[in-house]
Amino acid sequence: MNAIHKLVVGGAVALTLSAAQAVASSLDSMKPVSLRLAHVVNEQDGFHIAAVKFQELVAERTDGKVSVQIFPNASLGDERTLLEGMQIGTVDMGLITNGPVANFVEPMAVFELPFLFASPEQAYEVLDGPIGQDLLDSLSSVNLKGLAYAERGFRNLTNSSRPVNSPADLQGLRIRVMENPVYIDTFRELGANAVPMAWTEALTAMQQGTIDGQENPVNVIHSFKLNETQSHMSLTRHTYAPAIFVMGTRSWNQLPAEAQEILVQAAREAAAHERQVNADMEAEQLDALRAAGMTIVEQPDIAAFQAAIAPVYEKYGAQFGEYLERIQQALQ
Predict the structure, then answer these.
(1) Tens digit of each residue's pLDDT (9 = 90 or more) over 7-26
(2) How far apart (Å, rounded) are the C-alpha atoms in residues 128 and 131?
């Protein structure tokens, strides 16, 4: 190793050490912080799996200076209430389905367009790239900070009445959807009576028979034992729903930059962990639902569903024009 090489290597090592020392000193000097992270599903759900992974990574990488308390089961409110709490600082952060987030920042709803993504890999490419980051950054306009995209996953239809092979089978069924215009319009075009309501209310409505069905990924259908009220499922995979690790700007701004960076990286890794767990568990969950008596239509007439929802793209195409075009170009 010549003298110049030694100087360069030595300088790089010194810079690395000084950067590490800066992080250490910044975290050492900060007062311990406890963040309240809330979500609306149970402890068997992918959201909770992601939240626990995030909790572990943050504690480890901040040497306990930042701890995360997890509040599952909508114990702090439904998803809209949680987002409003983040805005005013009564809740620090949450893992929130994309649909309710889109009620605060409209362009986020571009991801709700039906049959936009043909596979999880297509969704990840867009979400984890520049398009997804631009939309996360846009949350700052409503006092929210987007950290990373976890997932709710590809959504499928369940109901208590009959097998659904095509849109014709949906005629007249009362289907709970998220409180989001794209979902409402999608199911109206498919011929259903779309009933927007919070998830906690939907569980009661299914038990009481005031709605016939709902749409959610397999992991939700399994973890909430929807087979007890829903005898039929169709693997329509009509929408890929992201979920977002999101913080209130007030809570975010109280952290030093080094802690902020740790939170972003931990959220990304926790999201990747949840995606893998969901993929690994889906076949097993479908088998369990079949064994519990649920009838599953594995190959519904997707072409018929796609044709039926064409008016949704006509209605929202201009509204989401910039992002929709960028997504379609990225997927070509």
Answers:
(1) 444 444 444 444 444 444 57
(2) 8
